[in-house]
Specification:
The structure is a homodimer. Chain A is α/β, with parallel strands linked by helices. Chain A folds into 3 domains: about 200 residues, FAD/NAD(P)-binding domain, CATH 3.50.50; about 100 residues, D-Amino Acid Oxidase, Chain A, domain 2 (2-Layer Sandwich); about 50 residues, no CATH class. Chain A has 14 helices and 17 strands. In chain A, strand 1, helix 1 and strand 2 form a beta-alpha-beta unit. Chains A and B meet through helix 10, helix 13 and helix 14 of A and helix 10, helix 13 and helix 14 of B.
Chain lengths: ~400, ~400
């Protein structure tokens, strides 16, 4: 048996490490070397929730103890409501989550993977290479991110409600922000303009804060997706601070204006993405199959911080199916699809809903501001996106969710 | 919340008891009272495998300790091969299974259910009653067996390969048969004529043996589905003994000819059934949903002894979904369908294959006769029908299954 993995992000590495734990030969096709990833531009700002950290522990790659590097809650702040002051409330996790700069995280796991006998081949893989690679492997897992080869998997219109980005993004790592107490992620919402996720990250230079601005197109925050640090750092900082002061008071009060600055010129990523769900698998001309995982399967907006967790969960599902099953035929692919469906589509449906929330979800957020048990349940469900979507899918379900967590 | 269960067989009772464990109001519509079931004709001959016994333990209704009442293996005997002598081989379970006469089992669980606050209403429920009952319950679970109201759920042609019975059946409880050593089920196969399952049962009169003849239409065993005990007990016994002597030597050698007899005139059931898979759920005119479970969802031939186990598994899945979820809408029904699919359809696909085995399955049985580890794996998979079907679905999968259990 030999498994080929195209891509070296979190899903590719978690699957590769899982397979090596079970002595299964794996070849990983990585676009960049560990050194290139470590020295590159900020690729994202990614939270790993408890279930993902548990998989890291099982693989022996939890190098950043969540008790030391992690955080324990979500601090919410909503401005722009009819209320006279911003709504501020907190939801606690049962176990900590953590955020490690992927330029620290991924290269370390690439080393782990190679030390355990995993093979890495560096270089781009194009769609036209897939048939040839399929001859070398019993199964190809496409974990190549949201661009390029992943596009071979057809879009599922039934699960892809958007045809363009719902947010314009600016993610950067900053100095000069004091952590909240208890240490948590700040979930800032400015109604009509967008969100700011304030993320306690462990970066290449140590502890810092990532700010991920999720600007609604046409809103007051959109400029942050356009203003270029490289053109004029002073103007860039001024623009960020102006928007933070106007929209995000729970962050502004913890900024040291004299120290506030982007960590470095490669610590900023601006752009936008269109959420999409693709088919789980493809039959190749060779008769073998290719499975999609991570962003090649399902791209979600980062507003809920779920993408990496969904990718890791999905990778694990594939790994367990490889161990248990007796072949890599269509039945195998259907099994993987069924086993990850509730989780991966829960992430996608929930995130798509949050981008343009229906009234019952707006009401839920209001109820959470008045009911800590409810907010804790919503927060803990960041580990259970299938359950989160169970609770959000219809007004009746959300009413039942609120009722369940409102009993004395 | 209030759940209505139509039917009082194993799936209805396991679900009802599960829900009462969690203080959920339940009304069960039973065609017969506990006394009527206890005094009636043999309804079936049903093995409960370890996973089903584990659910009984969790519910506190495991009244027949498997260590005392159960059995531990399958004794196989195949006649009619090119080999000079019958093939005889054994597969062991990791944990015991057991067979309790349902005229003992079901009435006792009906009492348990009522003692725990479950309501039972005695009387037949017809299809036209369903809409009215739906007004009284948040969810209707149809556990009413393979006739009558279950037929409201459309047949799934994609999973129902047969349009008529593949075996004609005679199930009876007999005295005068010594148990095998170790105590096990005898799986007797006479190529071209059919199977005999020799089942160590605990009956209304204590320990006895059920013989379930699975006669291929047109074969030498078919007479056993027609000969009537009530017409002439002597002729009936003579017919059974003649066929056992000719086709089933592993049983014949343990029969005490002087004591051999049907236990009593109601201890015999003859007939035939057509395997069928039906849709998981229906939307009623009320807007509420009805879920099918057990034989209302999926009828399998008894040749693998899987029907009750599948029904109980499915009932448990529904119970857990009721606890976890936030509504009884189509999403709820789809969740149940997804969560039981691999198991319930594994039972169905495996059993349908065994009735008319493809060459690779015949080869597997041959390999099992030479390889006890392989036969043990096949036997233990009576607890994991999803895995059994994983191993049988294609020739390539069966080859991989054999290879996995053939390594030194």
């Amino acid at each position: 048996m030999n498994i080929g993995i195209i891509g070296s992000g979190v899903s590719g590495l978690h699957l590769g490490l899982f397979l090596r734990e079970h002595d299964i030969p794996v070849t990983m096709y990585a676009e960049k070397s560990a050194e290139q990833v470590a020295g590159g531009r900020l690729p994202n700002t990614v939270a790993h929730h408890h279930h993902t950290l548990e998989r890291e522990r099982a693989l022996g790659v939890h190098h950043w103890d969540a008790g030391e590097y992690g955080y324990v809650c979500h601090h919410h702040c909503v401005v722009g409501t009819p209320a006279p002051a911003p709504l501020r409330f907190r939801g606690d996790f049962e176990e900590p989550s953590s955020i490690i700069d992927y330029r620290v995280y991924l290269p370390r796991l690439m080393v782990d993977y190679e030390e355990r006998g995993g093979e890495i081949r560096i270089g781009a893989v194009a769609a036209e290479d897939l048939e040839r690679l399929s001859g070398e492997h019993d199964l190809i897992v496409v974990a190549a991110g949201r661009d390029g080869i992943g596009a071979m998997f057809p879009r599922r219109a039934d699960r892809s409600p958007y045809d363009k980005p719902q947010r314009r993004l600016s993610a950067g790592i900053y100095h000069g922000i004091a952590y909240s107490e208890p240490k948590g992620v700040g979930v800032h919402l400015s109604l009509g303009h967008g969100e700011l996720l304030e993320l306690p990250i462990f970066s290449r230079e140590g502890f810092a804060t990532a700010l991920l601005f999720e600007a609604i197109p046409g809103g007051d925050l959109e400029v942050l997706a356009d203003v270029r640090y490289d053109d004029d750092p002073h103007r860039f900082h001024a623009a960020v601070l102006e928007k933070v002061e106007r929209h995000f008071p729970m962050l502004h009060e913890r900024i040291d204006l004299g120290a506030f600055a982007l960590q470095g010129p490669t610590d900023i990523l601006q752009g936008a993405l269109t959420p999409i769900v693709r088919e789980d698998y493809l039959r190749l001309a060779s008769g073998r199959y290719a499975l999609a995982v991570g962003d090649a399967h399902c791209v979600v907006d980062p507003v809920n911080g779920q993408g990496a967790n969904s990718a890791s969960y999905s990778a694990w599902t594939i790994g367990e199916a490889i161990l248990a099953d007796y072949g890599f035929d269509e039945r195998f692919c259907q099994r993987v699809a069924r086993e990850r469906e509730a989780f991966v589509l829960g992430v996608s449906d929930w995130t798509n809903m949050i981008l343009n929330p229906q009234p019952h979800v707006v009401e839920l957020i209001g109820a959470m501001s008045q009911n800590k048990a409810l907010c804790d349940a919503y927060t803990e469900n960041f580990n259970h996106p299938d359950r989160q979507w169970d609770a959000l899918a219809t007004p009746e379900r959300t009413a039942a969710f609120i009722a369940r967590h409102s009993a004395s």
